[in-house]
Amino acid sequence: MKPAPFDYVRAECLEEAVAALAEHGDEARILAGGQSLMPMLNMRLVRPEVLVDIGGLPDLAQIEDEGETVAIGAAVTQGGLADWPGLASALPVVAAALPHVGHFQTRNRGTVCGSICHADPSSELPLCLALLGGEVDLHSARGVRTVPADEFQQGVLTTAKEPDELAVRARLPKARQGERFAFLEFQHRHGDFAVVAVAAKRSGDAVSLAVGGVADRPEVCRWDALPGDALDDALNDLAWALGGSDDIHATARHRRQLVRHLGKQAIEATAAGGAGA
Q1: Residue 65 · residue 22 · CB < 8 Å
Q2: Tens-place pLDDT, residues 138-176
Q3: What are phi and psi of 197, to 5 degrees?
């Protein structure tokens, strides 16, 4: 299929992109990498009147080490982030997750912020944003606001971004000394969306586990301590609390078992060393 007709605006600056969103509102869509948007256009799942292309804005194609956080611009591709020299030490869980995001070819076009804004609950980058407690900077003609991950990601393909707002960057806290991370997922084929994905962080005895692919958004559970005999019970409680449903990819029962199995593997990996600063 072919997309429905639309007008095309190639923004020459951030202000032009924001102005186009202010003018067209919900009838506009942002085009950066297009790896999620173009299939939806071709299947006519979305029919915008205007596409606003921000892919050529150099200010949005920057990765900045801000000291305690890494700021990732809206035009930074997943491949560009994977090639960033500081990734493994600053964001080890993202470094572990990125090879699971699509394929080499799609990572060269798909953007980090685009994946976060698409908000697929099985997607790896929103999961990392949730685990790390990151935030998203939103610009509009009305001003600028910063939204934390637990408020930004609201449900399936749903975020707190308003139609006239542009997500200009995502900020992810850098790994601190002594923190350890792990990422695991189950997918039917490499490059598919995860049936269930987990990302774990350990700081001393405290453990955080983010789970994607079960609830309608990534969910994070935190425990101050998980002695060995309590881990299985905690993960079982979490698996049931997340709910889940049957679909063509897996049953709810299978997803619960994956939460238990992958969650335990990830948490034990952080205790054994894992990836860290």
Answers
A1: no
A2: 999 999 999 999 999 999 999 999 999 999 999 999 999
A3: -130, 145
Angle at 41 between CA 244 and CA 165, to 5 degrees: 80
With H, G, I as helix, E, B as strand and everything else as coil, classify residue 171. Answer: strand
**Residue-level pLDDT at 274:** 66
The correct answer on CATH 3.40.50.2300 for the domain covering 7-53 is no
Q: What are phi and psi of 49, to 5 degrees?
A: -85, -25
| Contact criterion met (CB below 8 Å) for 210 and 131 | yes
Q: Which two tokens stand for residue 210?
A: 């983010």
CATH 3.40.50.620 fits 180-276, yes or no: no
Cα–Cα nearest to 25, from 8, 48, 58, 1: 48
Burial of 263 by CB count in 10 Å (0-12 exposed, 13-18 middle, 19+ buried)? buried
Q: Are 155 and 217 in contact (CB under 8 A)?
A: yes
| Boundaries of every domain in the chain | 7-53, 61-173, 180-276
CB atoms within 10 A of CB 111: 33
Q: What gap in Å lies between CA 41 and CA 3, rounded to an integer?
A: 5
Compute how many other C-beta atoms are within 10 angstroms of the C-beta atom of residue 97.
25
Distance CA(18)–CA(272), nearest Å, equals 47
Both tokens assigned to 187: 């997918």
Architecture per CATH, 61-173: 2-Layer Sandwich (3.30)
